[in-house]
Amino acid sequence: MSKILVIEDEAAIRRVLVKILSEENDGYQLEEAEDGLRGLEAVKNNDYDLVLCDIKMPKMDGVEVLEAARKIKPEIPFIMISGHGDLDTAVNTMRAGAFDYISKPPDLNRLLTTVRNALDRKELVVENKILKKKVSKNYEMIGDSKELAVIQDMIEKVAPTDARVLITGSNGTGKELVAHWLHEKSPRSAAPFIEVNCAAIPSELIESELFGHVKGAFTSAVKDRAGKFEAANKGTIFLDEIGDMSLSAQAKVLRALQESKISRVGSDKDIKVDVRVLAATNKDLKKEISEGRFREDLYHRLAVILIKVPALNDRRDDIPLLINHFSKKITSEQGVAKKTFSDKAINLLKAYDWTGNIRELRNVVERLIILGGSEVTEEDVKLFASK
């Protein structure tokens, strides 16, 4: 049942609104407030699905109530109630975030239609927020170890902000998963997530890849081309293996972080970008700085938040859960019958030295599923997963 608050200082109008809505078939739960101050207090202390709010009221007018309410509970739709002389103000309240306005005296059909539309919109907003909180199944972080819990807790705190994050850890530990979590649990989740593997792009092309180029900037530049920073506008760019980026590209990334501007290769025209930057590396960047291969000022710009992803050897208690997860995923992808792992097989895998971390474990599980029996045994592990 939808809960609606009616804020109106004229008792007669308030009674009409409550009567109309109480007789609606959907059966609304209605509460009243006779002035703006009491209305705002009710919003602070209760959860409403919709607020109908008069504009001209003593103590606190409707515009002030709307502005204050949107700061504390922005998801609540407001329908403003306007007198003849309040129409300009009513239009301005919509620019300030009101869902709609209705004129006095209220028209029955207009009121009910507006209320239904506002409640539908509220339901969609709530559903969208829930969906944004759910991370794609492709980027699940599997495990219940203390080490992983620390990472997950940090993600929950950092994701809603625009803080830059530097993710460190050995190859195969899941740095990319952390980046995806940070994006998908952020307000930017509906916008692009652009990945750039800095180690896979030749140094002479990295600047064009990141910032784009104009026609004629170099031999193969036959037309203008936007770069990854432009593609990630309003969203997130993930600079993986940033320790392999050339110093000249580092200088341009630094400028993008400092000024929120980039320029395409071969152009002096500035392009404004609104991008959250996440970066990852398996290198010791402080050592790279001391040896002149990484800019110290860029490091401090990137490392607002540092997240170190633990090696698999440091979270062995998660290995049984990871084996089970990979087993289900791989058998589904390969179209083969589900396989179980014996306790002895799991214990043997837990004792291995996983230098390749989670990526290596996944490869071994896939090999055992393909080559092992209906139940993967200790003997299968010794035969097919030996180092």
Descriptive terms for the model:
387 residues, alpha/beta, Rossmann fold, Helicase, Ruva Protein, domain 3, five-stranded parallel β-sheet, 16 helices, 45% helix, extended
Report on the architecture of this protein.
The chain has 387 residues and is an alpha/beta fold. 45% of the residues lie in helices and 14% in strands. The chain contains 16 helices and 14 strands. The protein has helices spanning 11-22, 36-45, 62-72, 87-95, 108-133, 146-158, 175-184, 206-211, 228-231, 247-259, 285-290, 296-302, 319-334, 343-350, 357-371, 378-384; strands at 3-7, 29-33, 50-54, 78-82, 100-103, 165-168, 193-197, 236-240, 261-262, 271-272, 276-281, 305-308, 340-341, 375-376. The strands form four sheets. A five-stranded parallel beta sheet has the order 2-1-3-4-5, sandwiched between helices. The chain has a five-stranded parallel beta sheet with strand order 7-8-11-6-12. A two-stranded antiparallel ribbon has the order 9-10. Helix 1 links the parallel strand 1 (3-7) and strand 2 (29-33). Helix 2 runs parallel beside helix 3 (62-72) and helix 13 packs across helix 15. It starts with a strand and ends with a helix.
